Amino acid sequence: MDTFSFLIDGFALAIQPANLIYAAIGVLIGTAVGVLPGIGPALTVALLLPVTFKLDPGGSIIMFAGIYYGGMYGGSTTAILLNAPGESASVVTALEGNKMARAGRGGPALATAAIGSFVAALVATAGLAVLAPYLVKIAVKFGPWDYFGLMLIAFVTVSATFGSSPLRGLTSLAFGLWLGLMGIDQLTGQARLTFGVPGLLDGVEVTTLAVGLFAIGEAFFVASRHLYKPEKPIPVKGSIWMTREDWKRSWKPWLRGTVIGFPIGALPAGGAEIPTFLSYTIERKLSSKPEEFGRGAIEGVAGPEAANNASAAGTLVPLLTLGLPTSATAAVMLAGFQQYNIQPGPLLFTQHADLVWGLVASLFIANVMLLVLNLPLVGIWVKLLKIPLPWLYAGILVFASMGTLAANPSVTELLLLTGFGVVGFVMRRYDYPIAPAVVGLILGPLADSALRRSLQMSLGDPMILVQHPSSAIMIGIAVVALVAPFVFRGLAKFRQDED
Question: Max Cα separation, the chain?
Fold first, then answer.
């Protein structure tokens, strides 16, 4: 009952005219930028972090959530019409969606993707509202040793999940942890790793790192590949609406995709890739027309898109309740909270209850806005695909630089932004994931503080970390998650040598 009353209060906040405008701006920008090839929700949120620096915290976080959901919607348009998924989670949508578009059924493909996303996000957001308070009740009992174990799980799972190898993920994480230790030590007041630069005494700004790695690095990388002749989008022919047969074949995949996507998205290292591929496999096995798969089966669009958007809502569960980001976009959204000195976690629901329930309520509203906007405006989204890439990424460079300098005008900040842009380019060039670096910068100081507080309470005895069952279990999970990828890779190599 408390959840319901909190949600009602959240809706009272979310329907305020200013917050409705923030939500509308978020879903419009998110969809528009999500449609553009190579620009996903993570880059979009990172790009807008410095712009929203001086806005009201509640309004800007509502806008970020709208961008997140809008980017998920927009990614399906690119995947279907251009066969160029902006994010890895949209790869499965492209398999059948692009085939449907080439067969003249791009309209129904876009429609089932939009409606499936709406249904999944609606159900999953309700799940978020119900599940979050129970997790918070458990998490508020955590001691510093438990928080340290939780941070270890976050570090290991994010590093193991993103990128082509766990070692590269750990390298990216180490870079972020090193940056996170820069500045004044909160416990001793001593300067650490500042190299005599006064501008580093306050530490590295999360927004500067996120914008540099995501936006500037992506622009450099695209320029280096000389992608000046992208594939032309397939025009949407005929009716955009679905036939009765399309509805009949879509509604069950929508529900199944939701059931698959939400719990996996809520797990550390769950992400959106696993549920989308799982949904596609299940729909292929359950389809009454399996022969259509590979040639444009509507179930192959409906199920994965529902799973994709349900997992997006699922990632907000550990982010809001435990402060754990399980996707690149969630990591950047964590940076969005931190720029207002708000730390997601169990205390968020007590210290900023109005903000968090207003955010949850705004997700419902943003979802309705997206459904209303997406289908009628599909012609405009398709025209966005015609923007030349040099113009697009030159605009991103200007926008990112101006936004960062507006938030923190200094030469040091501009040099850091440029340096992080170069690092971001190198990381993309050699396939190092970016999200672990952002997570390391944000959670590194928190893990450092939790570890040192634990050692202070035990008079320097490190055994305190494993004396409590909860922290011992979490550290054990982190160790298993760290070792398992290397063990499996070694076994696979051993079997290949035997063959």
Answer: 73
Look up residue 82 and give its two tokens: 């251009």
Look up tokens 């230790």; give the residue: 181
* Sequence letter at residue 440: G
Positive or negative, the CA dihedral 464, 468, 472, 474 is: negative
d(CA 209, CA 240): 41
What is the rounded distance in angstroms from the CA atom of residue 213 to the CA atom of residue 69?
Answer: 22
- The DSSP output letter for 184 is E
The secondary structure of residue 90, as a DSSP letter, is G
Q: Which two tokens stand for residue 381?
A: 């989204």
Paired strand residues for 183: 192
184 — phi, psi (to 5°)? Answer: -80, 130
Nearest to 72 by CA among 117, 120, 26, 129: 117
Residues of the chain with pLDDT under 70: 1, 37-41, 51-54, 82-89, 91, 139-140, 158, 160-164, 186-187, 189, 199, 226-240, 267-274, 328, 375, 378-379, 381-386, 389, 403, 406-408, 485-499
Query: Closest Cα to residue 97, out of 308, 270, 327?
Result: 308
**Domain residue ranges in the chain:** 2-498
DSSP codes joined into one string, 109-165? HHHHHHHHHHHHHHHHHHHHHHHHHHHHHHHTT--HHHHHHHHHHHHHHHHHHSSS-
User: Which residue in 265, 291, 260 sits closest to 278, CA to CA?
Assistant: 260
| Nearest CA-CA partner of 42 in 326, 289, 258, 232 | 326
CB 402 within 8 A of CB 415: no
CB 274 within 8 A of CB 262: no
List 184's β-bridge partners, or say none.
191
Say what the pLDDT of residue 406 is.
Answer: 66
DSSP annotation of 431: T
Closest by CA position to 312, among listed 363, 348, 277: 363
Question: Both tokens of residue 236?
Answer: 């949407």
Q: Is 103 left (phi over 0), alpha (psi -120 to 50) or beta?
A: alpha
Contacts of 145 (CB under 8 A, 6+ apart): 450, 454, 464, 465, 468, 471
pTM: 0.70
Q: How far is CA 159 from CA 257, 275, 355, 475, in A?
A: 26, 19, 30, 15
Residue-wise pLDDT tens digits, 113-154: 888 888 888 888 888 888 777 777 776 677 778 778 877 877
Length of the chain: 499
Q: What is the pLDDT of residue 415?
A: 86
Q: Which residues contact 288 (CB under 8 A, 6 or more apart)?
A: 249
> Looking at residue 106, what is its pLDDT?
74
Convert 257-303 into a string of H (helix), E (strand) and C (coil).
Answer: HHHHHHHHHHCCCCCCHHHHHHHHHHHHHHCCCHHHCCCCCCHHHHH
How far apart (Å, rounded) are the C-alpha atoms in residues 258 and 75?
Answer: 18
Q: What is the DSSP letter of 212?
A: I
